[in-house]
Amino acid sequence: MAQIPNLPQQLRSTRVLVRFALRVMILVIFAASASVGFGKALAALLWMAIILCAVTGAMRREPPFGPVLSHWDEMVAYAAMFALVSSFNQAAPT
Question: Which of 4, 13, 41, 54 gives a 20 to 30 Å CA spacing to 35?
Fold first, then answer.
């Protein structure tokens, strides 16, 4: 039986940055087409992205403070974006 070569546990930082940028673009596109409003939809999608990154980082056993970017760093970036969007949602008049 042919064995699958061991894939590296740590992704290169550039791949993580590209993955983050693509996911943000997809989240913005979905939020723009939501019927509940852009801000509320983006906040909900960012919250789901935070959970997804946390679960993925835990399942892959990535070190939280490793030398390269990981799902944990991506989760922190989504959390910062969520805090920013939430503050704008609360400040906006209804």
Answer: 54
